[in-house]
Amino acid sequence: MEPGRCGGGGRGRSFNIPPQKEPNMGLLRPKSMQVSGMEESRSPQTSGCPALRCLPGEQVLAWAPGVRRGLEPELPGTLICTNQRVLFRPQGWQGRQDSILSSDYDFALSNIGRLEAVSGLGRPQILRPGSLLKFMPDEILIHGRDFRLLRVGFGEGGLEPLAFRVAMAIIQARAQNGQAQQYDGMTLSKACCGLGPSEPPVPLLETPEDWEAERKKHGARGWRVSTVNERFDVSTSLSRYFWVPRQTLDSEVRKAFGHFHQGRGPRLCWHHPGGSDLLRSGGFYEASDPNREDIRAVELLLQAGHSDIVLVDTVDELPSLADIQLAHLRLRALCLPDAADEKWLSALEGTRWLDHVRSCLRKASDISVLVTSRVRSVVLQEQGDRDLNGLLSSLVQLLSAPGARTLYGLQTIVQREWVAAGHPFLTRLGGSGGSEEAPVFLLFLDCLWQLVHQFPAEFEFSEFFLLALHDSVRVPDTPTFLRDTPWERAKQSGQFSSYTKVYTPGSPQSPVGDLVPRPLTVWDWGLRYSHQQILQFYNPCYEPHHCSDSYPPKEQPTPVTPGPPRSIFLFSRGTLTPLNQLCPWRDGFSSLTSSSRWHLRHNTSSDSLADQEWGLPPHWGPSPLPPGLLLPGFLGPQIRLWRRCYLRGRPEVQTGLSAPTVSGLLDELAQLQELLRTWSSGALPGVQTKTKDPDTPLSPSR
Fold first, then answer.
1. Given 111, 254, 603, 607, which residue has the most CB atoms within 10 angstroms?
2. Domain shared by 577 and 458, yes or no
3. pTM over 0.90
4. Which residue intervals make up region (Disordered) (predicted)?
């Protein structure tokens, strides 16, 4: 449709966008904001549109005064559409210097799942790219893919043309918005990132020094940082650096990785304090033809200095990517405000989302038992090594290590196991326009919420931090979740060099390393949330002394010898099955599924591996439950719906969301106090009450 055409002002007709030069439309003319940080965009007409601090390259397309509905009382303000987001600014709102990139009413264009125009004279119309608006809307409903709902109503007195213009601007902006935001990025010094001066900055793992520091923190003495993929010539989906056994050469690593899917060979993701190592790798590339030296190099990487090895079939018992996507779509449809309430619980069960959460927690619990019950090498093997491997490795660390349950520890795990490990965020979250969408990371956050709910004293972070992380996956202000591979992030930020840096373990960093500018990341919470909001990230029930980090003496890893390992097991469907060798190429076998050795019996018991006396062979002897290990419940009502996240579009359901914990009671108390202030203000206009911050995305109303 051509801008500048108007088909009329009556209801029941199809309209095109009114001319942009019409003076009474209150349209801010598009103006590119070339800024290094943030700049304010002010309208020539100062009567309606509030000052807006734009992101780099952001253009204001249209705006209109309106009323935010959905919560009582109605909140007057202005609806603004830019080329990157749709946002609502309450009346009297003023941007704060400490929180300028995000608010409860900001919707990135890529986050808009459905846009509806509502009129009292007809049925709601779903607005899609290329569609014509058939009437002047009384209300616009913006459904976020993160389960938020922004409902803006327009009053009388000539506001309908403005509503029309904004609605059409949103349609065109969504159509023209690239699925992958080519974000240039703001540069920050390391001194202004993180949660505050008391929290260290999250390591981005983009330098060998970062990886070496993490290795020392884990106490992985038998491992080293490999630079074989520094120029991404081994795998573009892997990070530039990773951990490999100390005795292996980079030349051996390069050859061995070539026999795995997408070049993602076995590498360390976590060293357990008790001595075990958790590895992850892609599937064997069965069409390759390795020689004897390559097979031995693969075995050395998988063995990782241990005499006992367990290969974990990651995808077994877990949902496929298509299953995850279908369940999430059904869950979003069920949580809409207009969803029928009849048999709602049956419909929730029919989505199978909670079943997928249950299966992930059960699998992670079993793997945690394998890691903590005996010193061994546990290898998570998934064909692509970019989805369920990251989910399980993260959950295993959170279940097994108290240090991972801090706010800093969780951020480090996400950066290492998801961002640096090459999880395709853009594709899985629907930002690439392809058909491989599956919110695996959101499934992980739901599993993590279940753990926080079941063990409220074990985690330093709160539900509100998980909500902030959940809502950050589609924001256009950071490239953390807007790329599919570390190669794409490095290419965008200009990190490539024509030479390979020689790294010596223990070498000091550059003395000006802390002054080198870096792109904005999702971990820069201080620029996107206020200090009061960040305080809500912390769990008041957390007891850091509750779990000890000490572990009983463990058998030390057996040094690698030229001979084969002592025992090899495959863990699948809750059962440990002995194997004859690690690699499928030995003895002429070219496929894992072609041999009857890999056909496993189903475990008929409903108990977990831990309930079956750890499921270990008798000659291994008894193994007590180590301190610090969490084994969550995953049967029946133990798995609950994350209502504060999924039912945010239904405010009437949010009241009384207290869990049987102290933090839940504090949350409900905050809600009741907020309602009391609102009612007092409405009944007694002269009473001075504390004004609620309209830019509080972590308010109880969410």
1. 111
2. yes
3. no
4. 1-28
